[in-house]
Amino acid sequence: MSRFLSERYSAIEPYTPGEQPKNRNLIKLNTNESPFLPSPNVIKALNETEISRLNLYSDPDTREVISAIAETLGVNENQIMMGNGSDEILAFAFEAFCDKEHEPCFADITYGFYPVFCELFNLEPEIIPLKDDLSIEPSDYFNKNKPVFIANPNAPTSLALSLPQIEEILIHNRDNIVLIDEAYVDFGADSAISLIGKYPNLIISRTFSKSRNLAGARLGFAVSNPDIIADMLKMKFSFNPYNINRLSIIAGKEAMLDAEYFEKCVNSIKETRGYISAEMRKRGFAVPESKTNFIFAKHNILSGTDYYNKLREKNILVRHFDKERIRDYVRITIGSREQADALLNATDEILKGC
Amino acid sequence: MSRFLSERYSAIEPYTPGEQPKNRNLIKLNTNESPFLPSPNVIKALNETEISRLNLYSDPDTREVISAIAETLGVNENQIMMGNGSDEILAFAFEAFCDKEHEPCFADITYGFYPVFCELFNLEPEIIPLKDDLSIEPSDYFNKNKPVFIANPNAPTSLALSLPQIEEILIHNRDNIVLIDEAYVDFGADSAISLIGKYPNLIISRTFSKSRNLAGARLGFAVSNPDIIADMLKMKFSFNPYNINRLSIIAGKEAMLDAEYFEKCVNSIKETRGYISAEMRKRGFAVPESKTNFIFAKHNILSGTDYYNKLREKNILVRHFDKERIRDYVRITIGSREQADALLNATDEILKGC
């Protein structure tokens, strides 16, 4: 830390992203990327002509990708804004709608970035514990009178609330923002998009990094009512108006419009998830019913740290959170069937040594 | 504005980027883009293999492009950080180093984003007027004891301070940040990069949008001492760790390493700038000696607004700032020689009508 950093950041602990190793021989099941290439239409659209136009600024209004999202999700264009990944969307939401009179609340076990945003924006969140089974109790979020942030499905637990449960939370929070972080929703949970018109305080954040196979393009978006979108656009245009690059705008548009490929990829992930969940259970793991592109698994003997380290020795990278309540778990991305088999084989070898 | 927006933003006025019209028949001289394509090595490197990898996250440490910059500029890798455009770099600097005890100072006429960052981060800047000839008086910045932000060359004036003048400012500001915004420095001004080792409070921000022909890739960077870079990285990793997409990292690396193409493009801009400045002066414009890829021109009869509007009618887009002291000027990007001739022809027609 330099002597010039503002004192309010003296204790800030930035987010630690999952490791991005240089070694391409590793089986990388640690950051919930898609094992599938981007849509063939993305690859076709990012041609030499488009690349040659990189000397020109991108459209700060990102109209092309917004129009594709609006068409696909059946919402209006003025109900959408794009972020440089959904992390930026979340950042703008914490920045715009939280302050000393409106401190946010969220679960004790959820996306690890929420507490980091609180440090960055000098907020003191109310932390709401998950139930013993790591699920969310909807009534814990009733009548909060402060901004509510819920990841649905939740990470890293992989568990989802139903649409009626989400609506119950909205019914009991009329006067504050409710942000539903739907990064993983396409893998089997109910989206709250259908509630956007009904609850003007609802914000949904989404990402192209998981189900749209575009983690490297950095694209996320918010869906909400036009007033709230206008507020979040104020944040964007006061921070970084050209936040999305030219090629990502095109990639996002093509990925969003290729419904067939999207479904094929998502269905394959679900199938592999069913397979790997069943096989892990046979091997003594508790595996909650995942609605995401990862599983959250805990063995009855092997500790989370040991399992993580031993997989790493075998060139398989998963994610372990050294945090109370979830220290015994590892989070494993659902990749290809081959990666699943490699994981199961490695796990068999590890368990032999227990 | 929704009723949920934090009150502190009730009066915020976001930055207005230069218009990005859909109409490709316009001659666009309003956002200081390069008229030249990205380096051929960029176009070659962004091949189908790389595009196919967009399903994977980008490197949050952006090592490849940092290494290319370090090599090219002769600084260490830990003295560099990447931003999603230099706007993001500037935002992180305002956020990290300014607060109620350290309000920033900058010129009355300078990059229009500085006051916007102040609104976003709730800062009250000290505004230091330029001299009557729109140049900066270095001694006005001595012993500020608060963060100093200077665009060098300055925008939209196109005027530059010399390296000794910048060093004088640093000598008289030992205990506060001095950020030199070198977005346009490659077009003929002295860079302060050579002073980085000598003044631990110096930050330089740079962009790939102008001299590196990559406005659409969204790439900027900071050069400073490792402590300050570490502070700014804390902001990035607390806001958006994967701020640079995969393809822009590659594009930035290739653009930085292609010194020959870079020099060819910059030299061509300088040549056209000399031509257009001389021709404009012949037509009754005052054109200060530009060190940038734009000129800032004022006619002795024709008002700035009229000139802007009449050029627009002829499908030529330039930038006009409706702001005290510079209302009579227009800012004109130096594009290709053909664009310069089109501008001069249009100007001749406009002046005939005066």
Q: What is the element layout, followed by pairings?
A:
Two copies of one chain form a homodimer.
Chain A: E1 27-28, H1 40-45, H2 48-52, H3 63-73, E2 80-83, H4 86-97, E3 105-107, H5 113-120, E4 126-128, E5 148-151, H6 163-171, E6 178-181, E7 202-207, E8 220-223, H7 226-239, H8 246-257, H9 259-282, E9 285-286, E10 294-299, H10 304-313, E11 316-317, E12 329-333, H11 337-352
Parallel strand pairs in A: 1-11, 3-4, 5-6, 6-7
Antiparallel strand pairs in A: 2-8, 7-8, 9-10, 10-12
Structure description:
The structure is a homodimer. Helices cover about 35% and strands about 15% of the residues of chain A. Chain A has about 350 residues and is an alpha/beta fold. The first copy, chain A, has two domains: about 5-35 and about 260-350, Aspartate Aminotransferase, domain 1 (Alpha-Beta Complex); about 40-260, Aspartate Aminotransferase, domain 2, CATH 3.40.640.10. In chain A, helix 4 (about 85-95) packs across helix 7. The first copy, chain A, is globular and about 60 Å long. At the A-B interface, helix 2, helix 4, helix 5, helix 7 and helix 8 of A face helix 2, helix 4, helix 5, helix 7 and helix 8 of B.
Descriptive tags:
homodimer, 354 residues, alpha/beta, Aspartate Aminotransferase, domain 1, Aspartate Aminotransferase, domain 2, 2 domains, 5-stranded mixed sheet, 3-stranded antiparallel sheet, 12 strands, 36% helix, globular
